[in-house]
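Researcher: Quick sanity check before group meeting.
Model: Go ahead. Protein one:
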Amino acid sequence: MSAKLWIPLCLLALTAAGTGTAHAQAGIGVQAGASPTGTIGTNKGDVGSGALQCQAGTIVRGGYHRDKSMSAGISSTRGMTNRVGLYCGGITTNGVTVSVVNRNPNGTPDVLSGTYAEPGTEVTNYCPSNQLVHQLGGWDREWSSGQYPPWSSSLNLVCRPLTLDASSWVRMTTGASTSVEVGVRETMAGQPAHVARGPFCSNTSTTLVSGLYMQAGGEGYDGINVYCGSLLQARHSAILSFTDFAWNQTRGGSGWLVNLTQGTSLLDNGAGTTGAGRTPHANAAANLSTVQTASEIYVLPGSNYRAAISQRPSGIAANTFVTSGTCLTGIALLNEQDQSCTLDVAGLPDIAVTLTTPAPAYSNYGQLQNIVLTATNLGPGATDGNDGFTVVATLPAGWTAGTLPANCTANGANTVVTCALNPTPLAAAASPGANGGTVSFTIPVTVNSPTVSGTYTANAALGRIVPDGDADPTNNDFNTANDTASGPLVFQKQPILRLRKTLPLGRFVDADQFTLSIAGPGGPATATTTGDGNTATGEALLATGSIGSTYTLSETGAAGANLANYTTSYTCTNARAGGQTPSGNGSSFNLTPVAGDDLTCTLSNTRAPLADLVITKTNTPGSGPNDQSGDTVARGATTLYSIVVTNNGPDAVNGAVLRDPIASRSNLNCTTPPACNGSACPVTPISLATLDTGVPLGALANGASVTVSLSCTVN
């Protein structure tokens, strides 16, 4: 049969596809040769030819071979290679022994070549436990004594165990080996025997089989070449150091651990070994020349090997520190290089602010009491003298700061006080929850008029704009929750009590004076008035009254004054908005002041009325109000008497009673009803009878008069 008959059948070959997932470059791998070597069969090179290799980090440990059916197709191609697969394993070591971990334990091959039609016998075989394919050969045969080129028919795996050298680098042993055939050398009457090829690849401690190159033909794989590679391995670890970090620095166990990565991907050799939870070295000297399995992982030579904190000791939060070093940017590793990236943990400060305000209440304007600003470092990192932290106190309206301590300044209104922490570096706390360095500032504060009594709030805050805004990440205060504080400023202004005197109608007696008194805690406060008329100068003043105490405000007469001559009332005004304003009658009263009361009370004494009533009676009014000396009347004549009541003041008179008894008349017969003239005349006309018993007059103003005329006949 002509070889040309094979060409159309090439189209049945499929491209090989690996199984499984990709992993970061962890493990021990093989640097494949630049080109394959050795040939089992023929280098045909048809479409479908290509490399067949294990995934990175794994190495050939077994094979799969399927030949073409011995009863189908062109007889000259029966028994040739129909499909090939590789079983791959990862290498692990505890620093004493080396093991091979099967990636896909004795199941479907990890990688498979393309396939051809008319499959025949399948054979799977593996190296013994913990051995890898060190060298590889196989068998091929010709058809009809050279009429056609030979094609591959079976594989021969030369397996050897692994070992470690003095530096814990993995090596292939070069002594005794185990040969494992993968495939079937089919026989056919009249045809040549199969010819052994290889083994290929050198028997050295660093070389081994890295893969195959499949030579595709028309009816199957005409040939197989071998890639000889060299072991690829490096070791990656991390050095963890601490700068300005006062808390637990234990590495390993329940302490600090790291994840070893390539870029952001966790290192994973796909065979059960990862870079998770590794114990970092304390320094470069701690990274020994032999493998340290708790700290290191075997990787393939490459770049961008990194590490990140994966575990912190109990109580240490992730925001209490910052990291730096080559573990953040990545390092490159060469073949058989044991190298650590560096990771430095720098502690951060946590400055907690507290504000202490005075317990006693303020009682007067201008009174000074102290507030205390305190900054305490609770973090693992100390502050520096140039970090720029401040603590700022803000006072409520009506309150101002007095003379300030060192390193503190105030705004123009003395209501905002800023104290610099820079001159006093604050030491780190020894452990989470402990207090580190602290600094306090005592600031005198006063309350100013006209602030009313009440409870006010002073505030304190950490000034962090400068340190948090600079280029140094190690001085950032990591916890904002304790950056502010507040406290009460209580103002209970002491009551002020005043007692004054007013005489709206003047004095009952010109010499009258009065002694004013405020009796109670802090008293008595007294004053005696001076002045005349309705002027009463003098004030009893109690400037520091006691809140909630009872006070008696009263007066007594002085200079012979008789309070019975006066009607007394009292009224109070209060400068405190909404405050009490007692009022009432009497020359003595009690009150209980509250905080902020500013009371001015006035005793108002209204004297009893004063009036000078004059009464005259005459029958000769033209000659004056009184009868003339020697005045006579004729018997039987009618005479007219004028009775005049005059008020000479100074007060008006109400209810005066005019009486002219009949019995007091001698030799007179009065029968005509009296007549009344004046504004004080009663509403009801006066009769002789009512004049006899008494006639109530109306209001008689100062200087007013009333005239009653009485006509009588002389007996």
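Researcher: Fine. The other one?
Model: Protein two, sequence then structure:
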Amino acid sequence: EPWDIGEGGYQVGNFPAQWSEWNGRYRDTVRDFWRGQEQTLAEFAYRFTGSSDLYESTGRRPHASINFVTCHDGFPLRDLVSYNEKHNEANGEENRDGESHNRSWNCGVEGETDDPEIIGLRNKQQRNFLTTLFLSQGVPMLLSGDELGRTQGGNNNAYCHDDPILWIDWDNVDRDLLKFTQTLIDLRRRHPILRRRKWFEGTSVRGTNLTDIGWFRPSGDEMSDEDWRVSFARALGVFLNGDGIASSDVRGERVLDDSFYILFNAHHGPLEFRLPKVLNTAPWHTVVSTAAGPIPDVGRFMAGDQLQVPSRSITVLQRFREESQSRKRSLQSMPAPKLP
């Protein structure tokens, strides 16, 4: 936890080699991105890929970044999407204690509500935060109870309580959120591309015309330097190349994995995304949709196809390596066209 009060107390990124740090920049950037703040896209990309701008210069690897959205201080995840202001009256300090700048968004109503539209948006925002966390390079840190929908009733400084404000209510567990979180954990566990040991380099992968990572606009075109500077941009496609992990396993063999195309839409409305034409070696399958709840809509897409990503949501597409290799072999075995 690389910060303390007083001048020079904030030391995120300044620890030496072999140290891992709670990444407060990750927390702040991810919160700002999903509440629709401007000028967040470029920094969001750094945080999502392990924060090389903070840790690479000291010789550290992506695991130096302990990524988190919430922790023991501040709002739990459900309150992060339900309250704009702290509500610490029960602490006995007239609501003067605790952080006042929480980078939270209540989705339209402060606190509890029975409005189904707001409840649905809050549920989706929780899934957005969890999906971002578990698909980011680095080490994910999950606050106990966030996977269950735990609330502190808007209290963001509840350390002084040993009562229902701080306890987990096991009789009111959000089963859908728990199942969704388990799906994300399993996805991360099974795929080394989501937990690389080395930094992405943006270089071409041997035997392919693709780089180890690719950044794309919703149109399917590659991001330009100017695109990263567009203040209102809140959408991005990220290609993670399973053939470009650049690591070996315990037997010294090259680590290979499926590839992923992750579509982020933090806009208030739906967006049409076109799959980049360079990603043309095999079909892409929908494996996660934060808009669809615990079970994503089944979808199958090819390069050049369009798909709609709902407002404030993530769609995760997976290209199975077996299908990609099979398609390559099929193309290679096709007879050459006869000349007239």
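Researcher: One line on it for the slide.
Model: The first strand starts at residue 21 and ends at 22.
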